[in-house]
Specification:
alpha/beta, globular, binds zinc ion, binds S-adenosylmethionine, seven-stranded mixed beta sheet, 15 strands, 373 residues, Rossmann fold, 41% helix
Amino acid sequence: MFSETKEGTTKILVPKQPTKYIFYNTKMELCRDIDIASISTFVSYLPSQHLTYIDALAGTGIRGIRVANEFGLSVAINDRSEPAYELINRNIRLNEIEEISNAYNENANVLLLQNKYDLVDIDPFGSPVPFLDAACRSVKKLLLVTATDTAPLCGAHTGGVRKYDAKPLNTEYHKEMATRILLGKVTRELCKYDRAIQPLLSYSMAHFIRIIAQVENGAKKADACMKKLGFIAHCFSCGNRFAFSYSDMLEMRVENKCNLCGRKMRIAGPLYIAAIKEKRFCEQVHEELGKRALGKKKEAMKIVDTCRHELDIPFYYEHHAICKALKVPPSSITSLIDALRSNGFSASRTHFSDTAFKTDARIDAIKDVLKML
Ligand SMILES: C[S@@+](CC[C@H](N)C(=O)[O-])C[C@H]1O[C@@H](n2cnc3c(N)ncnc32)[C@H](O)[C@@H]1O
Ligand SMILES: [Zn+2]
């Protein structure tokens, strides 16, 4: 019924056949490898503290078991499915981590409302929204959240407004839109409890978004954090876009006519408009990935390295889409980035898309540079 596999240096029993009672997705090993390096980096900032971690939606227990086994943190591992709970216990014994691991068979929200943990990991099916309130009450230092409901977050259907209290737009940069709407939602959930968020590493791949963020206490910090929320205005006619703050919106200081082509701009948000990662943290995670025995080391290092060098500006541009509109053949991304830089702009690649770039140049300036290439 079960077979033994390995992730990092951790042994894990997983169902031989997919079952609705115990979930395991090999494709998420990459995400878990990045988590291990990220948690290990974060924990190294707090060397003398005895930190607690909860894998609140654990399936086989793989995340929590890896955290306990690969660097010895005390872990709570929970799943409300009974077969999953039984397997979590077997996996704890298999790795001989009984002394630092506790398995639970609870509703995650109940456990999170009853206990506080330094690190809280929410890895649900689909949307994390049903668990965010309890997670934001429980967490003391580091919050890790996955979302796989990328369609409503991207603006591909209407659920974004209902679930995330935010309006997405289905633009060429929909992956970043989704990541920033999720971050915006988490920010507001934390701020309710006078807590502030500092994203350390946020990324989106294939079907999921992952956020790893530091949490700090204090009403003043929470107030400062609310200033990182805002909106984006987008012109579907010429591709122009700009971000603006909550207070600009509330005081109706926003011109919704495109200042380049005169057409109506569409508005998305509220969403997180500040940096979605910390460069130094990404550097350290990258180093940590290099040192560890990990199955997806190479891919993990590539993503974290791209995040590290990515400009903090929202939002990226799809190179091919602009070239198509201009009716010019696409050059290489590298030569475009070099050309933007030599024209005095900042420019970088983005982990969101291999064919996209970020820059502080406006769309009209980008088009001028592209025409010269
Ligand atoms: C996506 S799976 C977890 C995958 C796992 N974290 C991994 O990396 O392989 C989501 C899990 O949440 C569990 N679950 C769903 N709702 C829950 C709830 N309210 N409380 C506790 N567990 C829940 C499901 O049984 C399922 O095992
Ligand atoms: Zn326009």
